[in-house]
Amino acid sequence: MLLNWLNASEAVGIGSTLADQFVPRTPPEPAKRRKKARAIEPDDELRKFLARIDSEVRPLRLNFYKRAKLANSFKWKLLQSGVEPGLVDELTRILLVRLAGK
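-> structure tokens emitted (102 positions)
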């Protein structure tokens, strides 16, 4: 029973998978070409992120330790991928608040 409570490997994997949504897929393009490309709507990305939390993570009913491991893997995957630290902190906060809600 106690070993199952401490087994957070699934939570770590899910945190990494959630972070993949925000990892840049390609290196940044020059500024001139970037203006022509269609901009991704931040509200749309946030809605998708919240929907993934509700459908993939909340049904698991993670304990405190597993939620901490999930958030830690999510945050470090984003930081190592070069996402801006301020955005990483905000996304991690959103993730934890969403998981804490009923």
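The two ends are 25 Å apart (CA to CA).
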